[in-house]
Amino acid sequence: MLKRFHNQLEALGCTGKKILVAVSGGLDSVVLLDLLLMADCTVGVAHANFQLRGGESLDDEAFVRELAMQRKVPFHTSLFETNNDAIKMGVSVQMAARQLRYAWFDRIMDQEDYDFVATAHHLNDNLETVLLNFVRGTGLSGLQGIPIKNGRIVRPLLQFTRAEIKTYATDHRLTWREDSSNAKNDYSRNFIRHHIVPSLKELNPSLEETFARNTERLQASHELARHELERLRQTYVLQQGRQVKISKSITGLFKHPAPVLLELIKEYDFNLDQSMEIVLALHGQPGKQFLSPTHRLVIDREHLIICTHQDEWKEVLIEEGQRHASLGHWVLEMENSTKAEVQSNNLQAILPGDKLHFPLLWRKWKHGDFFFPMGMDHKKKLSDFLVDSKISLTEKEAVTVLESAGEIVWVVGYRIDNRFKIIEEAKKVVVFKLKTNSQDKL
Asked: With 70 as the cut, is the pLDDT of residue 303 above it?
């Protein structure tokens, strides 16, 4: 076992490095510490006391402290108010303990110049994790299990079974602490360990070996899937300003499109049930919306359009001589000029200063608005103009107008009102330039 362990250290790049060992006092972590010392590694011991088992937690800390002293290695410990922290963080006690533990490890590593932190997760832990993920429906990514290396975290025992670890401990006459909570079925992991895995081993006595082989295959499949997903992103997904547009045609490529779509939208906090509903609604009337906690997805004519939830935009007054104004994620820059420049693009408006009545009003458009589009001598409803311009629902919600004395002078970013076009006699003009707030992101 020591030879295999040493080979694993080399593969992880841990040889000759300073390693912080997470030691709870249980069988696995005690064996991990012994193996690292047998491999002549420079180590320190870290023990997190979560105060979840009363006197047992104190006894665990005392045991690990004594163990570190016997092995003549540095000892680090911390006392956590785990139950209180879980309430403050709004997570389970187990999740709080995990977050507290790894944050503490990071601090020790930075302060004491450790290269890695080693945890004692083993093959059976990995099997239990994958079974839990399967039951919870985490998809292909969850079936890969625990990574053997994740940044500065390494797990050198991940290829070894619990039985191998116990045999090593017995052969080397190691002592360890038994966690009484491991014998209970209060936690899902313990239920799987005590009931599900033994039943599966009746069907396949070589369950751990089979699982290890399948894990490698699943990891390879996941890598292939990631490459294909990146190709799909490049072909069917477009980042356009504050919006992400996904071509609806992508769903026609797959027999089961919902899980594929989920891989493209889950980073915006959408789930599988929503992905399935979106696929079913694709060929219905455009405009149907789906909301995640952070984003909104709208089914448009040819695309699925994703954007962040918008806060209510309050109208803005612009005084004469003012240089900047902000509305939502838009910024207007203004400057006076005596030169009537040629209109260069829709993000710029050059308006006659003598026709503008300050303060100007900058606001979101609303139904009932009308203006005289440049080149037309009759008014048009702004809603009709936006439809004719094929502006999507999400884009419509970000359309604003600039008013002077109650009249729209510019549909901002789209079209100037014909009544406010520049004529040769104009002695003074005001140049407006529309920009996106650089701090406002999707």
From this structure: yes
